[in-house]
Structures are given as C-alpha cells and as structure tokens.
Fold these 3 entries.
Entry 1:
Amino acid sequence: MHRLAILFLFLVTSGSALAQSLDCVAFTQNVIETTREACSTLEQNQACYGNAIVEVQPRPNVRLDFSESGDIVSLAAFESISTAAFDADDETWGMSLMNIRSDIAEGHLTALAFGQTTVQNNSEASADFVAVEITVTEPTGANLRAEPKADAAIVRGVYSGDRLQAIGRLEDTSWVRIADGWLSIDVIRNAPELSQLQVLEPDSQIADVFAPLQSIGLRTGLDDAPCAAAPESGLLLQTPVGVSTNLEVNSAGLTLSGTLLLQTTADGKTILSLLEGELLYNNGYRLKPAESIEYGFQGSTILYTPPVEYDYANARYLPLVLLPREFELPFSLGGVIFPFTPGTGFLQTFTADSPCVAAWTVDVNLRSGPGTNYPIRRGVTGGYYGNPDARAIGSDGAVWWRLGEGVWIAADNTAAAGACGNLPLVSPPPLPAG
C-alpha cells in the first residue's frame, strides 16, 4: 500500500527555522482523501474537481459549472484545466482527477493533476470515438507510415505481436490509422470490428484523430513541494495493466504502458519519469522504470537527454493512492545521494545549524536498514553525500544515518557536518522475513 509518512515542515530562511502554522502532511493527506471521495463517480472522458483550487477555461460558447469539490465536466468542453499551488494561508492545494478515453479500446487513461499544474487540451475532438485493438501478424514486422500508401515516409517500425490501437480507417479499410501513422491491413490480424472505426481522409492530421486530452500542452511548478513529505507539482498518468496508449505531450509523441510522472522546468523543458511499465519516445527509444528524461525544443527540433535515474526520494510522496492500480515504486538513488569532489573542503561550507550532511570518500554499501544484517540496496563509490533525515542505533551497536526511506549508511563510513545531532532517533525497521 502507498502511504505518506507523518512529518512536520520547517522552512529555513536566513539560517532560522520557521515552523509552518499548518501541519502540512496531515493537510495533504486530507486533500487526497477529499479528492478520492469527491471523484468516486467519475466516468470516462470526464474531469473532476477534487480539491480547491481548480479552474477550467471552457471552449467558446460553452458555459461550465465547475467551482467546488465534486463538480464534473466533460473533457471536450474545456480548453484547459489548472490546479493551484499549495497555499498554507488559505489552506488550498489544487487537485483534479480525469478519466481519458484516449485510443484505449477498453478502459481509459487515468490522469491526476496536483499542485501548480496546467493541462492544455490540444485536441479539437468534440466527442469520444471508437478504438479497436489490432495485432501485427507480419513475421518480419512492418512500418507505420505517414500516409496510407506503400511508398510513404516511414514514421516508425512495429514488430510481430505488437498490439496497437486503431482509431480510424480509409473508406475501403485497406489502411488503418494509429495515432501517429498508417498501417496496411495486410500486416495485421483482420478484425470485423474495424468497420466500426471512423472513416478518415488520407491527409488527416493528428488533431483530427486525437481524442480529448490525448494531445496536451503541460506546464507545472517544480521544486515546490509544500513540505519534506509531500510531492512537487505534476501530472500522473496510468494505463490499465498491459494496455498502451499513444499520446502527444508538449508536441512530443509518446506511447505509454504503465505509470508516468510528467513535470516541466522553468525554461520550458518537459521531464518524464517512468514509475512502472514502459514508455516509447523519440520514434522507438524506450524508457524503463526508474528512469527519467528531459526534452525541449531547439528551433523546431525536439532534443532529448539521455536517461538518468528518476527522483526516487520525491516520488515516494506522490498521491499514488488515487490511481486505479497499486504498484511498488522502483528503487533508485535519484534525489537520495549527490556527487561532490573530495579534498575541496566541501563539508566546511556548512555551519553548525545547517541541515545534516553525511559524505563519504570510500566505497560503501547502502542498506535497507541500520545494520550489516539488512540487505544491501546498492554499493556506491566514494565522492557522494546525502542529507540524513533520521538516525538509529544499528543491530551492530553503531550509529547509522537514514538517507531516505529504506536507505541507510553506517555513520562510521561518513564524515558529517551540520545539525546531525538534532536528527530524531528512530527504531530500526523489521528485518526482512527469511
């Protein structure tokens, strides 16, 4: 089960710790529960006002009543939906849950916007449409093409056994339309349901075939978590198990099967962090669980960074309980440890009342608990540091630092600076069974 640990927030300003008047984590947990109850009747292709503040920009000549928790609107009725950043004074933190049909034949894509997040609806579709799952049967695979003809430009390759969602067809059903291209009927298992697909013109554009919110523009806050145990702003997406969907996010084509966190940076880049499943991007590149990429534009070209470890430390506090499927977050050291250059006086830059810093210059093992009888999570070379949030007396009688939930290091292997003596002394977690 996913849960948020109960901690309190302290804001550090000019070396002084100012306690917030609001118990931040208890508040965010209440927001999550409010959203769960308010949106329990949400149906396909609808958005729900989970918690204040959520605003929608309606389509021209459309009037919407969307002003309080539990209100529901059709996805096709608005141009954008925005959730508000955390505000301790007003005790608000925006959250909205959406069920998006996308190109999924059965079920829907679940979307959860929270914090300072705006989702622009780039699809002009005014209603839902039929999608039919097809399977590639050509043993050598096939090519998805930009137009429904054999010599058209290749968009990407598909492989024997691939299951795709067809969302349109030519009038004679000789070619079927996937979100990002056309596929010949000769390379797929022919299904009688294909006749239900909408008839499209050969030159139809993406906007003509994307369902509401299948193509979006996204903007979020970043590094704006309201407290140490609450999430930064973002958008969560989750497909049904084993089902993929084609999306367009900030003009980049994506194929998702799993759970994805999306955020944006101040300079307009998009961050994709895969929490489980698989993500295809950049015409066939694959992102694996626990990996993250950024992309942005240089002129009209989209540039992608190489995959890196996702921010596991912050992902632990995401409101995953509002998604339909539970899963275990993949472990990584993203946001848990950070590199530094030994021999440069790094620790001397911290004062006695700075947050605790533990650094090491030798190879160490990070373990799941405070003691050598706990399993090793990861071996790490020297030249890294972490910010412990607690300490414990280990099973070996020594002091251990907790760098994050389930990530411990022996204090004897580190040099420390800052207010480490003020860290709470906690009980060691249970040893794994067996």
Note: The CA atoms of residues 391 and 425 lie 5 Å apart.
Entry 2:
Amino acid sequence: MARTAYRIVLWLALPLVLVRLAWRARRQPGYLAHLGERFGAGPRPAGKPVIWVHAVSVGETRAAAPLVTLLRREHPGAAVLLTHTTPTGRDTGRELFGDGVTQSWLPWDHVAFVRRFLDRVRPDLGVLLETEIWPNLLAECRARGVPVFLVNARLSARSAAGYARLPSLAREALGNLAGVAAQTPEDASRLESLGARDVAVTGNIKFDLAVPGETAERGAALRALLGRDRRVWVVGSTRDGEEALLVEAIEAARPPADVLVVIVPRHPQRFEEVAQLLAARGPIGRRSLGQPVPAHVRYALGDSMGEMLDYYAAADVVFVGGSLKPFGGQNLIEPCAVGRPVVFGPHTFNFESAAEAALAAGAGLRARDAAHAVTLAMQLLEDGARRAQMGQRAEGFAKANRGALDRLAAWLAERLPASLATARGSPAPGRPP
C-alpha cells in the first residue's frame, strides 16, 4: 500500500519535476542535456558484465573515484556505467574518467522509467553512494536478481527521523538492498533500525582521497596570483545565503589589509550572484581571469571548477561552507588532506563523525555563527605557530583515518555475483585474491 501511494504521488508530481528541471536549466543548461535518460532511455554500456555505480553530484563522484578505479582494475573485462543526478557530478565524472566509463543520468524513480533503464543497461551489480534510497528502483533490481549495495552509507539522525515517518516504505526499500557498508556505527544502527540487512561498518572512503602529486605545485602557482605576501583565507563550498552572512561579519570585523578572503561557491550557477555581492564592497579578483589579485583588493571569487584542492593548498586557513546554514556541511577532509587548519559552522550533520573527529584531533574548530567563524579564522591568521601546528594535525588526522576503501573492497568481494566473481582480474598489489 505504501509503495502504491508513493507511485501515485510520483506521477502527480511529474509535471512539477519537469518545471523544476527547466527552471534549474536556466542557470545550468546541462540539466536538459540527454533528457531521454531521465525517462530511462540511457546508453547501453559496451561490454559485459556491467558494474553500475551511482554518484549524485561532485562530492559523491569524487568519493567514488578510487572505488571505480579499483573495480575497473580488478574487473578489466567489465563495463562501468556511472550515473549522476546533477550536471556538475556528470562533468566531474567525465573529468576523472573520460571515455573509460559510460555516463548517464539516473532515471526518475517511476516504475516505467526504471524498467526501461534496467532493460537497456542490464547491470550485474549496482553500487549506490551515501544516501541514495529509491523504492521503485530497488524493488525492480531485486525482482531481476540484480544485487544493489549502498556503500559509504550515511544517515543522520534528522534523515532517519524522516524515513521513520514512512516505516513500511523505508523498510521495504532498505530491505531490497543486498547489503550496506556504513561510514560509522551510528549510521549502521540507524539503517538497521529502518530495515537494512547485512550491514557492516567500513568507514568513510572520502579519507582515501588521493591528493595528486602536482597539487602543491598548482597551489603555489595559485598562491602567487593571490599574493605571496598576503595572508589568505579560503572560504570553500559555500551555499546559498552563506556568503552574505560571512561578508557582513567580515566587514564588521575589519580585518587587516593584508588579509585576502577567497570565496569559492559550491555551485557554478551561483558564481555571478556571488560576484555581484562581493563587487558591492569594492573591486574583486576573479580566478577565471587568471590575473594577479591587486594588493588593495579584499575579496577574490573562486569561479572555476575542478580546483578545490588547489584553492585549499593555496590557503593559510580554510572555512568549509554548507555549515553556517542547515545544509549539513561539505567535505572538510579535503583541506585536512593538504595540511590546512579548518573552521566549520554548527551544521555538519552530513559529516558529523568527521567533524567531531577533526575537533578531537585538534585539526579543526567549530564556529557558532558567521561572526564567530571570522573571529576564529582571524585568530589563526594572526598566530603562525598555532596555524602550523593545526595544519600538521589536520594532515595527520586525514592520514590516520585512511583504509576504508580496502575494507569496502574486501566486503564487496565476498558478495559479488557469479558473473563478476568469475571475471576478476589479477588482485591489486597487497590484496589477496
């Protein structure tokens, strides 16, 4: 009964979904590209067996990258289908893998669209990243004997309470998963209580981020444009409304003239909006111009894609956005991985375990609000010794929590369908066959 009601609601909502898609395409035309894939008419991967990995947007796609690389290495004869929900996620997948994988949108969770998708793709294995729980998709996969695993899974207390309002639908959907690899024991407990089975704790694979060897060099080149003789505060992955809060707090604090604030919005469609906000305070620098930022300029806009680690490597102090307002926070592991002290706001429920561990390790500081975030950042910018110590602790914290990818790979290897278990390539170095 619950899934029947869910299906009816989906069909009634479809016109609104289409309107919303068109609205979002005004800023990001990529939302309307390959439109047929939203209705299940995705590309057919060239090859068999097919490993299907779903990563919603940029963060999930980057988190999935080492897993996809490992799966391709251990199953060299398999085709990999990488599905997304957002254009930025799709662009990131193309940047990371090029033509090495087939890319598609994940269809909307209507039975007809899901069946068309599965008829065309015919996956042997499905891997969903983090919190992707789609009742019709999971029911159809189970009916066809396609094992689907939720990996790097997380479920905040807030999200768990939301699912608990629809207990029968949540229990059916989670019960249709072949297994769950959770980030933390708390995530595992919440998922099990809602109906998930075969739940293991393997850790957060975002800690297994491979920092490219050229990151330090690229960060130094970017720092040369920002100003080698300036103190640089990078405010990364900000979400709607956060920039205004921070700019107001910065203006009230009146930081020293040699402090440059670099704001990097999470979503590229907001670059111009944030540019206007900053320009109202005076001249600004823009990364997209590729020019040095004049010494008298207080704000610079990070209006480029694929350079987040470079921005962090160019910083003295980092604030990670999505945390001043209740968005749940963005990835604070990245600045830690390049050895930068990190400040974040009160709302980190999407990264709660990592945030609390960073605080305990002395790698990060939590701000109560925008004004407090500015105060904490300025204190660090004034205290070079403390800043260096926190940077060392941040890098150590990131390194100490690695290993989730190996645990996840071992867990998945025990659950592979026959079509993949018999098609394994040579084992990765150091890992038993």
Note: The CA atoms of residues 45 and 203 lie 30 Å apart.
Entry 3:
Amino acid sequence: MVVTNSDFRFIVTQQMAEVGIDPGTILIEPEGRNTAPAVLAAALFLQKSDPDGLMLVAPSDHVVPDSEAFRSAVTAAEPAARAGQLVTFGIKPDRPETGYGYLELAGTPKSFEPQVIDLKRFVEKPDLDTAEEMVSSGNFLWNAGIFLFSVESIIQAFKAHAPHMLPPVQTAVDLGKPDLGFLRLDPDAWSGAEDISIDYAVMERAENLTVVPYAGGWSDLGGWDAVWRESTPNQDGVVIHGRASAIDCTDSLLRSEDESLEVVGIGLKNIITVAMPDAVLVADVSYAQDVKKAVATLKAKSVRQAEAFPKDHRPWGWFESLIVGERFQVKRIHVNPGAALSLQSHHHRSEHWIVVEGTAQVTVDDTVRLVTENQSIYVPLGAVHRMENPGKVPMVLIEVQTGSYLGEDDIIRYEDVYART
C-alpha cells in the first residue's frame, strides 16, 4: 500500500511498474498532514480486510543498500509485533549526526545483530557535542522512522494517545472515493486531522515499544551532504553528477541538473554546488541541514523557485517552462505514448503548438487532425482543445502561450481520463 498525494499518484504507479511491482492500493491524501494521519488512514483501511495483519511503515525516500540485512531485521521484529509491540528500527550510528533523531536503548547491546531490545526514550535532533556523547556511549541508535506493528495495535495506540485523530481520519477513509484504482480520501474530513508526526502523536507516549537495531547501511537522504556521502566520493572526496567539472577540489559535491549548464569548481573544499535550470545552490557542507532556511528566505521574497519545480510532472508526462515573459510563455511538453491531456479551454490565453518529436493527435473545437514533426497548429483563446499521443514513442512539442494571464489555474476541463477537477 502506498499513501501519497494527487500530484505523485501516476509517478508512483509508473515507478512501481518499472521494477515489476503491482502497486496495489494507493491512498490519495488531499493535502499533506504529516505521518500520523497517513499511517492511521492506512491502518483503518486495512482493518476492514486484515485486522490482524502487520504493517511495515517505510518512508519512500530512504536508501537501504543491504536488502537482505534489512529483511533479517524485519524478520527478527515480527514476533514482537504479533505480540502487540510497536517496533521501531534503529540504525547503528557511524558518526555524530545532528540531522537525525536518536533512540536511547534500555541498556548497551552486546552486538548489533537483529534482536528485539527495550526502548527507553526518543531523543530529538541533538547539537554536535551531545551527538558525540551519545555515539560514544554505545546505547543510542539513529531513529530511522521505520516501524513494524499490527493493524490492531497501532489503532489501539491512537485510541489511547491521540483519540482526537480517529474521527476525522476514519471519516476520510469511509467517505473516500475510488478513482482509477486509487482511493481519494475525503478532503473535508481530512482537513480536520491534526498535522503531526507519528513520533509525536503516538510513539513518544506509548509504553509497548521495542527497537530492533540495524547495521546494514542506511540513509534518509535528508540533505545534500547525505547525497554526497551515498554517491561514493572519489579519492579526493569529490562527487560529480551531470555536466560538472572539478579542478583541485576536495570533499565537495558538484551537481548539474541541466544538460545545457556546465558547473565548474576550482579549488573548492567542503562545498556543495547544485545547479538546477532555475536556481543554483552553493553551501558549505557543514550547513547542508540549513537549506530550509534558504527556502524560507525565498518564500519571504515571493520567489517562484521556492514554490514550483522547473519540471512539472503530470499523469500524461511532464512540461517545463523555457521562457516566461510578461504576456507570453514558452514550454516544452513531453507526452507519454498513449497518454492524453484533458479536453479543456482557457479564458485568458491562446496557444501555438509545434511538434518536434513524434506525432500528436490534436482536437480544436470540432476539428481533429494529426500533427507530425515540424508541423504546427494554432489554438485560439476560448477554443476547446486537447492533445494526445497516439504513437508508441514519446511526443514532444513546443508550446507558445500568449495572453493577459498564463497561470496553470486558467483551465476549464470538460473531459479528463485522469479524473482531475
């Protein structure tokens, strides 16, 4: 089961299909409310079909290189979970990390082999001196945010420690609407659920807690320093990704996410440089956890890059803005084979489409025609239109918009195979 938001639902199914996994049930959150409502929604949904089942809660963005060691840890945790324990997984620390929370064990373990150990308490992200003390003591683990428990046990834990969350989440599940294999949780009920992590809502208050240590390698990729660390630096401690060059650099990350943008570093030491099509980040490695401060600063300045990605993924493919002017915008639009945009119109803009790869089937009012490479078509303001990719290869076109307002919310949808409103 996957719990995600509407924008990512088709990316989820595509990625799971690529690795040969049936996505099964996918719950769509109307808005992000942190991990406690998400876990509770999954448990309440499963309660209808498998109340005695076990839930392994695993965030999707973690790196676990040794899958067999992780499976061994889960297997070791299973008896305790079936007995009603809420089992968390703790990572053996290899450095005094200040970006993670910690788990204090009831005693110092003789080994870090998979075993169930009593958990004394959760510890918030520490400062460096405290982190060094905890790592040297030997009875602290990183809090991975991965849990194993039965459906019934976690529901009972919410009843005991966060009972106010049950009514809105239960209603959101009960009033959820099926949509192309997804279940859309009811937005009105969901908005009444507290925005809180499962650690704060339940785990830090529960008494039936145990922990299984895991020493097989792990990262939550929580910052660019983690990306640098997990990308296997060369003998100089340098990681290069994309169009980047390093000259006399040490212990640095140089990363370009734009094929047309070359990043060159000269004499850098302990520096992170990440170039996106619309922004460039340069930071000392020791400040990698402070990127959120940069986001807050940009939001305060109403900078678009703080709120929007340069490439916008949609269920039919993706688009990116190449040039944005006061009354015009140029986009590159990539449509997957067999995919179709909604039948729509706009109040404030007209569009000119030029196909540069593949073939598009284009509807403009009552006219339907095929547009091939190097051909174009004009969509007047107010016209009802749609583009589809009837072929077996991706279709790429350049869209030129002109008008008084170019926002993505200037769309009236008449038909949509992806059930967007």
Note: The longest strand covers residues 140-150.
